[in-house]
Amino acid sequence: MTREMPNKLEGTIDGALELLDRQLLDVEGRMLGKVDDVELTQTESGLTITALLTGPVALLHRLGGRLGNNLVTQYVALRPSETNRSRPWRIVIDDVERLDSALHLRVHRDESLRRDVETFRLGALTGMNAVEPAGRRVGRVLDARFAPSESGRLVLRGLVVGDGHPGGLLGYDRRPDMGPWVVRRIVGWLHRHTCAVDLEHVQILWNNKEVRLAAPLREIRGPALRR
Amino acid sequence: MKKVFAVALGILTAIGGFVDIGDLVTNAQVGARFGLSLAWATVVGVVGICVFAEMSGRVAAVSGRATFDLIRERLGPRVGMLNLLSSMLITMLTYTAEIGGVALALQLVASVHELLVVPVVAVVVWVVLWRAKFSIIENVFGLLGLALVVFGVAVWKLGPDYGALLHQAVGAHKPSDESWRTFAYYAVALFGAAMTPYEVFFFSSGGVEEHWSPQDVGTMRANVLIGFPLGGALSLAIAASTWLVLGPLEISVDTLGQVGLPIAAALGKLGLAVAILGFVAATFGAACETGLSVAYSIAQYFGAQWGKYVRPREAAFFHLILALATLLAVALLMTTVDPILITEMSVVFSAVALPLTYFPILVVANDPDYMGEHANGRLANALGVVFLGVIAIAATAAIPLLIWTRMGQ
Amino acid sequence: MVCAAWLGLVTACAPQAPDHSSWRDQAHLSLEDVGSNVSTMSLVLQLVQDGRMFGKYQQIVALNSETNAGRTTDHFSGEQPEPQDDATYRRVTTVMSDAGDLLADVRIALVRRDSSQYPRLAQELAHMTHRLTRAEAAVRR
To answer: Which residues contact A166 (CB under 8 A, 6 or more apart)?
Structure first.
């Protein structure tokens, strides 16, 4: 039906740009929701993508900050008798077949969601403040870069840090050749301070909602462009 | 004959965008007051919608993704939700107005009670959206709506001074008794009406319903290049006919009945009958388009299964939204609010929501990951950027003009 | 927040004329509206006489014209004139209510298909259009 596009899960991807808010399709092409968030679990290889999260709890958190938290609390309060209502619905990563313009699963959508585990989420990582050793805030985490490990699963390798101006999800700062020219220049100027930082220079503080850099940003920054 | 049906989607989309109940009355009103001096606004609108509908159609054909799907993906859930709420307000209001419009059109031929016919119409619309195949909807209402070509025939029959009309259109010669403020207001209103977001939501979703693939890009372009200019031509014909008949009598148009008077004057009872058929078909078609667009947008934001290409049981969320939207529309109409007033207001507000809708389309149409070799070329990008600029101007000017001219008085 | 500021600025900068709280402008617009409805009725009557309309359509248009004109008249009559405008106010409301009565007569004749009345009513409608135009000119002074 549509053109054959490469499976992006086999290469490096940026989580917020290419995974979040993507359409989920089951093995027959039926739709079952969007990737409302991505679950990250600490393994020997590092922080690994272990499941995709979908549903109201995952989505409401992504609406941001205090508003998001309030909405989730209210949602849970709607049915206090329901077990694990505050946990998002998950699709384990092994059920995922490929990623191109949508995320294709290898299972049928009927009863494919589970709700039993609570771990780290990509949505909580994006938006965290990035802080230098001296304590100065240098920007926000805009995205997280994942690369395949030996086990085949995607593991966190670096973060994309910048000012957080609008247009971060359009992709202009990750690929050099996207048109139209005028839009690319404007977005490029807005995001001129965007850069990538390797994971080895970074300490993620989940409870404080911030990311500590091991050295001043200008010493450890790399280009955000991937190609 | 099959070829004609292949462009039915474009024609139906254009009908909902150019000759729905609000546009029928607005174009007649503009024609009576300004003649063809605002024709340029319609032409600019036609080119603009062609540019963006082609892009969104191409994205749908190549990647299988419809427009609202992409809006959330590219703008994030928060801005996407903002977009959803604003588009929903407009599309829902328009859906309400269209159902009311079908009732108004039916009253012109049959002795029906103005309030009681509304729930009947709404039920028929809902059953059609629930049960009828997508291709039936687009073929029947797309082609029946073409009955409005009778306005062009009426203009020809009235034997006008074509030179004078052309002069007025090309030179944008505003009649002396109207102010520049109202001129600008109606220009923005016509442009906003030509480019309402639900047209691209419907067109791209319709493309996915029809299972377009990269080979169908040519068909998609034919839909765009035949449908929207045709819609624009119908708008201009209506304006010309009212200028010729109602203008000299200083009649200002605010009801659907007045829109048909030039036809009666030029072509008599037979023409009038055809015109009413056109009114009913166009408003019903527009009701289908806007109703489906409400459901498409909401379902595509949440990623739920949408579309009429699957059995209703497999897209339960989508059909639930359709039913609820129809119920809400009926409730609103039973308060005896005037459908035409609803559309006039929503048209101007839609001008404000345009940038949020069309910017993501331009971006995705350029993305090589999605589009491969079908990504935008230089011409598409140049036109896209230019029209984004026009849209931005229209969006910023819309509300001020609404306030300054007290809605066009 | 930017949008709210923009809206505030725009409303504050709205130009003075046409200032629709002005009674004279209201009178002018109301007369124009009633005039439009009277002209519509004239056109309908003429089309009926030429045999170019059919039953239900002419009734609906006639009824709409009568109702809309009546609504404008009622709305305007509720406006409070300045003491110096009292004479004009009386003149304008008189002509508008006469127009309303005439429109009702025409509507009744059309619904009854009483074609013997049509020529007389057509003349009266033309005369009424004249009166409305003169009233408009008087208001503008």
So the answer is: A190, B79
Q: What is the DSSP secondary structure assignment for residue A215, as one 8-state letter?
A: S
Using a CB–CB cutoff of 8 Å, tell me whether A14 touches chain B.
no
Whats the size of chain B, residue-wise?
Answer: 409
Tens-digit pLDDT profile for residues B326-363: 999 999 999 988 888 888 778 767 777 788 889 888 98
Coil, helix or strand at residue B401: helix
- What is the CATH code for A128-220? 2.30.30
| Model pLDDT, residue C19 | 43
> Does the beta-carbon distance from A2 to B304 stay under 8 Å?
no
ipTM: 0.86
Helix (H/G/I), strand (E/B), else coil: B258: helix
List of chain B residues whose C-beta atoms are within 8 Å of the C-beta of residue C7: 399
Longest dimension (CA), chain A: 55
Tens-digit pLDDT profile for residues B214-236: 999 999 999 999 999 999 999 99
- How far CA B78 is from CA of A35, A63, B235, in Å, comes to 14, 5, 37
Q: How far apart are CA B91 and CA B97, in angstroms?
A: 10
Global pTM?
Answer: 0.88
Instruction: Look at residue A141 and give its three-state secondary structure.
Output: strand
Q: What homologous superfamily does CATH list for A8-122? A: PRC-barrel domain (2.30.30.240)
For chain A, residues classed under CATH 2.30.30.240 are 8-122
> So what's the pLDDT on residue C20?
42
User: What three-state secondary structure class fits C13?
Assistant: coil
* B contact set with A (CB within 8 A): 62-65, 69, 72-81, 211, 213-214, 302-306, 310, 314, 362-363, 366-370, 372, 375-376, 378, 381-382, 384-385
